[in-house]
Amino acid sequence: MIWMVLLFPLLGALLNGFLLPRRSKLLSHGVAVAAVAGAFACACCVFLEFFATRHSHLYFGFNWLQAGKFTAPFELVVDQLSGLMILIITGIGTLIHIYAGGYMKEEVTTYRFFAYLNLFVFMMLLLVLGNNLLVMFVGWEGVGLCSYLLIGYWFQEEANAKAGMKAFLVNRIGDIGFLIGIFLTYKHFGTVSFSELSSWMNLMPTLAEPYPKALFWITLSFFIGACGKSAQLPLYVWLPDAMAGPTPVSALIHAATMVTAGIFMMTRLSFFFYAAPDTMLIVACVGALTALFAATIALVQTDIKKVLAYSTVSQLGYMVLACGVGAFDAGVFHLLTHACFKALLFLGAGSVIFAMHHEQDMRRMGGLRKHLPITHGVMLVGVLAIIGVPGFSGFFSKDEILWKAFIFPTYGPILWGIGFLAAGCTAFYMVRLLCLTFYGTPYQDKSAHHHHHPHETPWYMWGPLVVLALLSIGVGYLGVPDFLAHLVGGHNLFAHYLEGLIYIPASAQGAWGHLHAEHAHELEWGLMLSSVALVTLAAGTAVFCYTNRPVRGVASFLGGHFPRLHQLLLDKYRVDECYQRKIVTPLAEISTFLWQVVDVRVINGCVNWVGYLLMGTSGIASFRMTGSLHRYGFWVLAGTVCVLIISCF
Amino acid sequence: MSAMVPIEHSLILAFLLFFIGAAGVLIRRNLITVLMSIELMLNSANLLFVAASRQVGNVEGQVMMSFVILIAACEAAIGLAMVIAIFRRYGNIKTEFLRALRG
Questions:
Q1: Which of A88, A222, A438, A486 shows the smallest number of beta carbons within 10 Å?
Q2: pLDDT tens figures, A73-117
Q3: Residue ranges of B 12-71 with Cβ closer than 8 A to chain A
């Protein structure tokens, strides 16, 4: 059964890629949806089978790599984490595949799109199911490749092709970290299998040198890998540009699944991370800073997809923060809720863009609530979920993360404060997005050309949105924090579910005692109420500022009085320009130097000079080579005679 | 049975034939003449074989001579074929045009 989960998307990709090109679009779409839906059905069976016993199960495929003592079998594992992930990937994947058929209706090469999309699902499943670092790495690179192909799907425009390359290259930097992590792991532990590493760490009561130091470097390398994939500072720059791809791609790859691979990988290796507290502090700081940094940029962006992209970076920052403070279960829970509501928001934005004939600038929208009632409804749910309104899924997951950050012994309240501010920013920019798009007066096009009225999308586009909206409310109740669940006599189901998987290794128990210590519930209530208050305040401000045109009130006041700050945010802190100036240009100059001077002049020069020298001097030796057959014959004869004469005496 | 030709006579004749052939190879500019001169050198060797065979009194030399004639026939066929090929390529069979070996 587990193999069917992998086989279906691969078959779909092969069919669409090689057999179906230039046939009916409906057939391409049907095959792609059937492949992912089939995988989802199988994944459900696999998950239920696992859930009945809750014992992780290994599936041995074949012996893939063997060299000396090193072995890397092609082996899959189904446990709490990968079971959940395959449900997310195939479930949300199916919804997005259905939606994509409508969104990509006007495309000529839909088969190419669906082939890439199915291949992506296959690679992502490989990533989460692999039982060793190498199988995971294959998936890791595979999803990177598919991301590149899909960002550059409309490659006829140079900007899109460049965005694809940027994503690929920035990810390579992270991949180097991941690779070094794999090498170091093998060097110190002699295996790359998760189950073996996990039991090794579990059985060690104390870690002697060199392990603590080695673990610091190993986890740091893996974290660099996670930074690349999960778009953390300083490698987040590719994700906003990745919005050049079609919107369903942004929903599936750049919001729900691929970008969470870094969080998934860190959770898989949580036993390493727990044993390296120094790395954990770095992870927590990077996560918190990313959450705030990206949220501030999102405050002023005008492209609807760019806002969502920065919001994704910010939410990923929350997940990384959760990992950093040791609350891997909260991180994975936020991954789950975020996958639902961010896919919903992206698809909703896609519907808006679709209805507006590929207009992405929010300043040219407005008043769409009347024309797109269903899209408006589901977007409203998505926004309420992401900003953390009580009762919606984002509330439970984000609150859990902020609480775990607060009780973190090192800089805990500071980390909480950064996350708290980011939550306020989130509420502001998401409500701003909603207001600019759906409320207020419709944008009046000054130019003469006549606009069509935007229409609600067909059922197979809003259907998935409704399902995702229900999920965005529902999944939150899987992980109600303990102190709230106690009110009705329950406990945090999600944390309980992950308990068997995420454990603190014996050697690191001391450093993480606070996670299980008792805390005053009043404090938890206080933090929760204060974040609800902040969210209400920020959302209210946004409503006040943006429902009527022209934009008035606080936002224009701030924009007018702090023009340089406003411009800095609009320019996204000029990080791209800085990278261009400090890294890309010097690198290009060094490369040009190596090419034009070192290669062309020095290396080519040396080789050519040797050649010229030989050609020049060979004339001295070859003056006897006249080419005259008679002369050659004469010398042969003369030589023979000489030999005879000498041999006679 | 007539009187035996002394071996010295055969030797001198073979020697003369060989040097006439060698001189032909070295001096003549026409490829066909060069081939004929080579035949002459081969035949001088044949003469030597036969004379020696008779002097020693067994037939090994004569067997050798038959082989040489056989090989010479083959060589002539191949040589002439090459001459024709050269003629087609260069338009004549003068040796001074064959200078591809010049360094």
A1: A486
A2: 999 999 999 999 999 999 999 999 999 988 888 888 888 999 999
A3: 22, 25-27
Nearest to A267 by CA among A213, A169, A194: A194
Record: contact A633-B25, CB cut-off 8 A: yes
Count of domains for chain A: 2
Is position A3 within any domain? no
Q: CA-CA distance, A37 to A27, in Å (whole number)? A: 15
pLDDT (tens digit per residue) in A359-378? 888 877 877 888 888 999 99
The whole-angstrom distance between B99's CA and the closest CA on chain A is 4
CB contact (8 A) between residue B100 and residue A625: no
Look at residue B41 and tell me if it is in a domain. Answer: yes
Model pLDDT for residues A189-242, shown as the tens digit of each residue = 989 999 999 888 888 877 777 888 999 999 999 999 999 999 998 899 999 999
Partner-chain contact A629 B98, CB within 8 Å: yes
A494 and A584 share a domain?
no
Domain range holding A591?
573-621
Determine the angle formed by the axes of helices A110-129 and A25-53, rounding to 10 degrees.
Answer: 10
Residue with tokens 């199911």: A129
Nearest to A633 among B26, B96, B102 (CB): B26
* Residue among B95, B100, B103 whose CB faces A630 most closely: B95
- pTM of the predicted protein model: 0.80
Rounded mean pLDDT, B85-98: 87
- Residue B75 belongs to some domain of the structure: yes
CB A4 within 8 A of CB A124: no
Q: Which of A181-190, A232-241, A389-398, A549-558 has the lowest mean pLDDT?
A: A549-558
Residue A250, domain member (yes or no): yes
B88 contacts chain A (CB < 8 A):
no
| B27: pLDDT strictly greater than 60 | yes
Q: Which amino acid is at B73?
A: A
User: What is the spatial distance between Cα A594 and Cα A162, in angstroms, rounded to a whole number?
Assistant: 24
How many distinct structural domains can be found in chain B?
Answer: 1
Greatest alpha-carbon pair distance for chain B in Å reads 59
Please identify among residues 565-624 of chain A the ones whose CB lies closer than 8 Å to any CB of chain B. 618, 621-624
